[in-house]
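Dear support,

We are seeing what looks like truncated structure output for some complexes. This example has two components. We would appreciate it if you could run it in full and send us the complete token output so we can diff it against ours.
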Amino acid sequence: MSSVNATAHSVVEPTPTVKRIAGTIVILYALVTVIPLAWIFLTSIKSPPDSISYPPKVIFTPTIEGFCNLFTTRTRQTPDYIQSLPAPTSTCDEITRRRNMVIAGPSNYWPRFGNSLVIAFGSTFLAVSLGTLAAYGFSRFRVPLADDLLFFILSTRMMPPIAVAIPIYLMYRQFGLSDTALGMILLYTAVNVSLAVWLLKGFIDEIPREYEEAAMIDGYTRLQAFWKVVLPQATTGIAATAIFCLIFAWNEYAFAVLLTSGSAQTAPPFIPTIIGEGGQDWPAVAAGTTIFLVPILVFTIILRKQLLRGITFGAVRK
Amino acid sequence: MSEIKIVNLRKQFGDFVAVEDSSFTVEDGEFLALLGPSGCGKTTTLRMIAGLELPTSGKIYLDGEDVTFNRASARDIAFVFQLFALYPHMNVRRNIGFPLVSQGVAKAEIRARVVETAKLLRIDHILDRSVSGLAGGDRQRVALGRAIIRRPKCFLMDEPLGTLDAEFREVMVHELRELHNRIHATTVYVTHDQHEAMAMADKIAVMNHGVIEQFGTPQEIYNRPASMYVADFIGSPPMNFMRFHSGLKRGARSIFLDAVEVAVPEVGEDVLPGEMALGVRPEHIRFSDRSPIRGAVYGSEYLGTNQIVAVETAAGIVKARVAADRSFRLGETVGLEFNPDRLAVFDCASGRAIASSLYAEARHG
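Here is the complete output from our reference environment:
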């Protein structure tokens, strides 16, 4: 009898063995995901020789050299010239001089990182705003050819976006959108908006119409009802959608390589170009990558509460 | 407060006619119940009055003003939804005060009126609670509070007690009627439950397939049902129908059920021969050994104050409501006698009640 229940409804408490197996699987999965991240972080605090030693060093003396190299450009000088300089003003200064080099100026990392922030958050904001409005329209009104339109919107995701790279490249050159933040924001918005419409339509469909109807009867216009009643309840869906859009825009590499090279270049195409003396400066690349991961991490943590909160629970009986 | 008047209201969704040429007037301060089975068009009618649906044709007047195509927000009405529709991201206080915010009422006044409304509904102790944790009855009261705080022209309620437990529903029926007696708001109340409608309403409109079958006081609807549908829908157990084939002459005072003459209220019209039905309420049947209408006891249902006895007669099973003290054997032969003043005769083909002195009373008051 109890075994029937277990298979039919899974209401039976799992046995310790099952729990142990489940726990092991979860831990293994976590390791698989976390190890590359840990590897990158550890590389970022290794010295350049340590970073390429084989077998890899697990025990090493941490250094911030990678970060120094990430943020600066340096020139090689003779030991005599370095001796003649006044005392170093910062730790990075000191580390650089030990390698017979002096800091020539800041690198392009922060401007590129800034571009990434503007483009990723800008396009996420646009995609989610447009997506919310479109999803609300599809969800609540009898839109002519709604099914066809929705399919059409989805169909833009049926091929990898990069497949249209060449037409977009030519078009952008024609319109002067190449290597501009606006161009990248428009491009990422266009790619993300279909995802946003579909995700958000699902969430908005779940919000009973009675709420807006109640608000409209309470004396509000439809727009006010949307703003005061629908949006607060759609926050969960909006947060989830925003995270997906942001992750895409933040990580996008191919279009960024193709369409940005100078003032609008984002971090992903910039990081691999960090080259030290005698080849790739791995600690600097790893440092750049580590910092690059932070905004997504912070954004996800901030929105985690929204993602988990079932705010409509219990207020309307289904 | 105000009067609601709907004229030839019709609503079509594609090929489906949800409401067909309905007209009625709810007078100032009156409580109207729109009663009918699900899908009969009662909720659609209510939503058109509210402005949540636009009619295909017809007019809606609020206080004499044509509001047929006015926005819901411009009609000054309140609506209580079946699923309450309390805003889940606001607490009880903000839910109740929300309609006043849209009117730009000063904060201090909103606060005072929320408390006043909450006291009226006896929910002032839960004002700062989240609506998601509330019990069904309290949610219902919050929804009512949100409706009455604005002192609107009228209240529209869509099966507001539909999701409550049976036990609690009775409490709320009582509370709603008491509230209506106190504030005298013109109310349209949609329900499929005849007990709610009978207990609360001043007038009832019985709807079926988008058509209003009868509009009248609960007494009229119960005692003088305009159609077989209404007679069958109202009353528990419903009216008995005993079929016979005959024509009727104006002024006739009896009909023949299988050659047994049964006295009926004076017939008010000539009817061509056809399939007819004699309508008898269970409480208008007495057992009498001398009666020529005979049948065998088929079953009985004890209800405490009385009992329902089912008797199998030549014209079908007839249910009678009789005193609880007598007991019956199954299969026992009994004679049935009807109260001649309270019988209705229906034309089976159209379902309509045949005019008679019973119905004439209604017309003369």
